[in-house]
Design brief:
The complex is a heterodimer of chains A (340) and B (384). Chain A is built from 14 helices and ten strands. With 340 residues, chain A is an alpha/beta fold. In chain A, strand 8, helix 10 and strand 9 form a beta-alpha-beta unit. Chain A is elongated. Chain B is an alpha/beta fold. Helix content of chain B is 55%, strand content 12%. Chain B contains 18 helices and eight strands. In chain B, helix 4 packs antiparallel against helix 5. The chains are: A alpha/beta (340), B alpha/beta (384).
C-alpha cells in the first residue's frame, strides 16, 4: 500500500515510449526502480528484441522468462521491491498462447521449426502487437492468492512514431479473425490498454524533432477510438546542469551584449585570480551567448510541452555512463517529482 | 598506441566525381537527416547535380529544403549558391512515401485490372503501409529508381529510423524472401507442390498447419493473402531480384557509406556494429561522422580550474560581474567535462576501429532549419 500520492496512482501498466536516442530504455528502467521502491515487485519488459534492458542493468541477454535484475533502494523503514525483467518476442508469446488455449506446446515447437509461426506473425503485423501488449496486460493483471503479483508493469515500448498503432489493438486486428480466441484475447487486452490502469509516458529531449513527435504522439492517443488511451507524463531527459539551473534562475545567462559580457567577465576572472585575460573573457562570453541561444529555443520547446497538459518530469544528463547507481539517481529524481 | 583517427574529409568524397551514391546511416536521433541534407547542399554548391532522398525529416528541416509535402517526387531546392566552384550544381530533395512507391511497382508490373485488384486487397494494404521492413525496402527501391533515372550525378540517401541501424540492409531481402517464399506459396497453393518427395511430411502436417494458421489469423485474412498472391503471381521472383539489385548497387564502386553517430555511448556502440557489418559485407565505408561534438573556444581553462575559480568568486560580493562570472565558469566547466567524456568515447571507438576515418561536426546551439544552418555544418567538411 503506497502512502505517497503520485501522479499515477491506480496505473498498473506504464508504457514508456520515445523517439530513438532519447533514452527510452534507461527511463523505463529508472521508472521500474522508482515504482519498486514502494515495496512491491515490478516487471520491466521489452518488446523489440534489442536486449536493451540487459545492457542497462549489465546482465546477460534476457530469455523469455521473468528474471530478477535489481532491487530498488529502501525507503525509510520499508525495503525496496524487486525489479524483474522480461524480453518478450512475438513467437514465444504465440507459443505460450497456443499452449494456454489449445494445449499445443509440442505442435508449437514443430510449427516454429517450419517457420509457420514466423509466417503467421509476419503476414498479420497486428498479431505480433496483440501478443506483445497481451503479455503486458496479462502480467499487470496476474494475481496470486488474491493479490496482484506485480505492483506495476513497465513496458519499454516501440518508439513514438509507432506507439499509437502499436496500442490501437482493435484497428490492428480488424483484418484478423472476427471471432475466435485471438479476437477474444484482443478484446481483453484492449480493455486494459484503454482503461485508467494504463498510461503512456513519453521520453523526449528539448530538441525540435523529439518534442514534435511527443506532441503528435499525445494527440494520436486521444484520437484512438473508444475514448482514447491515457497519455502519461512527459519525461524531459538528459538535461544538463546548466539547463536545470537555468530554469531556476531564468534570464541570468548574459547581460545582453557580448561587449558587456566580456567586460564583466574580465573583471570576474581577475577577481577569481585567473589574471587579466581579455581573450579568455571573450571566449567565455561566446560560450554564454551559445548557451543563451540554446536556452531560448529550449524555452519555446518547453512551453510547447507544458501546453500539452501532461505532467513533465526532468531528468539530469548522466555523463559517466549508465550503471545501477545512475539508475538509482534517475529513479530518485522521478520519485521526487511525483512520477512514482 | 595511437588513438587519433585518420581524418575523414567529406569534401574529398563529394568532389570525387566517381562518387555517385552516399548512404548516411546510424541509429535514431543522431542527426542523420541533417547530415544528409548538409552533404547534399555542400555537394550542390561545389558543382554536383544532387538529389537527397530523405525518409523522415523534421518539419522545419524539410521546409528549409522546400519540401512541404510528402509527395514522393524530387523537388528542386531553391537558394543554392552555384557561382564559382558551384558552377553546374543543382539540388533536388524528396521525401519517401513508401506506400506510393509500392503502388508504383505494382502499377508498372501488372496490367491495369490486375493492378487495381492488388491495390484494393486488404492484405496488400496492410503490407504496403505497416509491414516491418517495407519502409526499408521501398527506400532501397527508390534509390535504385533514382540511380537508373540517371538525372543526377550524386544521390544522398538518409536511411529509415529503424529499430536497429542494420535493418535497411536486411529488411529488403527479408521482405523479398517472404514474398517469394516457399511457405507462402505452400499455404496459398498446396496442390501445386503435391507429390514432390521431401515435402510429403510437410503435407501430412498440412492440415494442422492451415488449421492453426486459420485459428490464429482467421480465414478471411488467409483468403486475402491467397487472392493477393495469385494476383501478384506475375511479379513473384521480382521482389528478391530487386532487393538483390539494390544490394549490389550498395556494394558497387561509386557508393560510399557514412556512418553517423553522436558522441554518446549507445550511438557509438551502434556505429561499431555497423562498421563491422559493412566490412563483413564488403560495403564501401567512407568513415564515421561524429555529429554534435562539443568543443570549447576556451579549452586552455580546464574544468577543475574553472570550478575552483567559480568557488573563489562565490566568496566575493554579489555584483553583476561576479554573478556572471560564476555562471560562465560553471558552464565552461560543464562543457569541458562533456567534451572530455565525448573524446573518451571517440577514442574508444578509434581503438577498436583504428582504420576508420573520422569527421567531427560541432554541436549547433539550436536545431538547423534553414540552408544557412546546413552550410555552417558543410563548412566543417573541409580539410583542416
Amino acid at each position: 500500500m503506497s502512502v505517497r500520492d503520485t501522479d499515477w496512482d491506480g496505473v498498473r501498466l506504464h508504457v514508456v515510449t520515445g523517439k530513438g536516442g532519447t533514452g527510452k530504455t534507461t527511463v523505463a528502467a529508472a521508472l521500474a526502480l522508482a515504482l519498486a521502491s514502494n515495496g512491491k515487485p515490478v516487471l520491466l519488459m521489452e518488446v523489440e528484441g534489442r536486449q536493451g534492458i540487459a545492457q542497462v542493468f549489465d546482465v546477460p541477454p534476457l530469455p523469455y522468462e521473468e528474471r530478477r535484475v535489481a532491487v530498488a533502494p529502501a525507503h525509510r523503514d520499508r525495503p525496496g521491491g524487486d525489479v524483474f525483467a522480461l524480453a518478450v518476442d512475438p513467437q514465444s508469446a504465440l507459443i505460450e498462447y497456443l499452449e494456454m488455449f489449445y494445449n499445443l506446446r509440442q505442435a508449437g515447437r514443430a510449427l516454429t521449426k517450419l517457420g509457420v509461426l514466423d509466417f503467421a506473425t509476419t503476414i498479420a503485423p497486428g498479431l505480433s502487437d496483440v501478443l506483445l501488449t497481451g503479455k503486458a496486460a496479462e502480467a499487470a493483471r496476474r494475481k496470486a492468492g488474491g493479490s496482484f503479483v506485480y505492483g506495476a508493469v513497465v513496458m519499454d515500448a516501440p518508439p513514438t512514431g509507432r506507439i499509437s498503432r502499436f496500442l490501437n489493438i482493435s484497428s490492428e486486428v480488424s483484418g484478423l479473425a472476427k471471432v475466435g480466441p485471438i479476437r477474444g484475447h484482443a478484446d481483453t487486452v484492449q480493455s486494459v490498454i484503454r482503461s485508467p490502469q494504463t498510461a503512456v509516458h513519453f521520453v523526449t529531449l528539448l530538441e525540435e524533432m523529439p518534442v514534435q513527435e511527443t506532441l503528435d504522439g499525445i494527440a494520436e492517443l486521444h484520437e484512438v477510438g473508444g475514448g482514447g488511451i491515457q497519455p502519461g507524463g512527459i519525461v524531459v531527459n538528459m538535461m544538463r546542469e546548466a539547463e536545470l539551473a537555468g530554469r531556476r534562475t531564468a534570464g541570468r545567462g548574459t547581460l545582453g551584449s557580448k561587449t558587456r559580457d566580456t567586460h564583466a567577465l574580465e573583471l570576474a576572472l581577475k577577481a577569481a585570480g585567473l589574471g587579466e585575460d581579455a581573450g579568455l573573457a571573450a571566449d567565455l562570453a561566446d560560450e554564454l551567448a551559445d548557451e543563451a541561444r540554446t536556452a531560448r529555443s529550449q524555452r519555446v520547446l518547453r512551453r510547447q510541452l507544458d501546453e500539452a497538459g501532461q505532467p513533465c518530469y526532468e531528468l539530469p544528463l548522466i555523463t559517466d555512463g549508465i550503471d545501477l547507481a545512475a539508475l538509482y539517481r534517475l529513479a530518485e529524481a522521478m520519485r521526487d517529482q511525483g512520477a512514482a | 598506441m595511437s588513438t587519433s583517427p585518420v581524418p575523414l574529409v567529406v569534401d574529398n568524397l563529394i568532389d570525387d566525381r566517381r562518387t555517385r551514391i552516399i548512404v548516411c546511416c546510424g541509429s535514431g536521433g543522431v542527426g542523420k537527416t541533417t547530415i544528409a541534407a548538409a552533404v547534399g547542399l555542400r555537394a550542390a554548391e561545389r558543382g554536383r547535380r544532387v538529389v537527397v532522398l530523405t525518409v523522415d525529416p523534421a518539419r522545419r528541416l524539410a521546409q528549409s529544403m522546400g519540401l512541404t509535402s510528402l509527395d514522393n517526387t524530387p523537388r528542386p531546392v531553391t537558394g543554392i549558391r552555384t557561382g564559382g566552384a558551384g558552377d553546374g550544381g543543382s539540388m533536388h530533395a524528396m521525401m519517401l512515401d513508401m506506400k506510393r512507391t509500392f503502388d508504383e511497382i505494382v502499377e508498372s508490373h501488372a496490367d491495369p485490372d490486375r493492378a487495381a485488384q492488388i491495390l484494393a486487397n486488404p492484405f496488400y494494404q496492410s503490407l504496403s503501409s505497416s509491414f516491418a521492413g517495407t519502409q526499408e525496402y521501398m527506400a532501397m527501391e527508390k534509390l535504385g529508381q533514382l540511380r537508373r533515372a540517371d538525372e543526377w550525378d550524386l544521390i544522398v540517401v538518409d536511411t529509415p529510423p529503424s529499430r536497429s541501424a542494420l535493418d535497411f540492409l536486411d529488411a529488403p531481402q527479408r521482405l523479398g524472401r517472404f514474398l517469394d517464399g516457399r511457405l507462402l506459396r505452400l499455404l496459398v497453393a498446396p496442390a501445386k507442390l503435391g507429390g514432390k518427395t521431401g515435402l510429403r511430411m510437410l503435407n501430412a502436417g498440412f492440415g494442422l498447419v492451415t488449421g492453426v494458421v486459420t485459428k490464429i489469423i482467421g480465414s478471411q485474412l488467409l483468403r486475402d493473402v491467397q487472392t493477393f498472391v495469385s494476383a501478384m503471381d506475375t511479379m513473384f521472383g521480382g521482389f528478391r531480384e530487386r532487393a538483390e539489385y539494390t544490394y549490389r548497387l550498395l556494394r558497387a564502386p561509386g557508393t560510399a557509406f557514412l556512418v553517423i553517430a553522436a558522441p554518446e555511448n549507445d550511438a557509438l556502440r551502434e556505429a561499431s556494429y555497423f562498421v563491422e557489418r559493412l566490412e563483413r559485407d564488403g560495403m564501401p565505408l567512407a568513415g564515421l561522422v561524429l555529429n554534435r561534438v562539443h568543443r570549447s573556444p576556451a579549452a586552455r581553462l580546464s574544468a577543475a580550474r574553472s570550478l575552483a575559480a567559480a568557488e573563489t568568486l562565490q566568496g566575493l560580493d554579489d555584483g553583476e560581474s561576479t554573478a556572471l562570472g560564476i555562471t560562465a565558469l560553471r558552464l565552461h566547466a560543464e562543457r569541458m567535462r562533456r567534451a572530455e567524456s565525448e573524446r573518451r568515447l571517440a577514442r574508444r571507438f578509434t581503438a577498436a576501429h583504428p582504420l576508420v576515418p573520422v569527421a567531427r561536426v560541432p554541436a549547433q546551439p539550436d536545431d538547423v532549419h534553414d540552408l544557412n544552418g546546413l552550410r555552417v555544418i558543410g563548412v566543417t567538411f573541409t580539410a583542416n
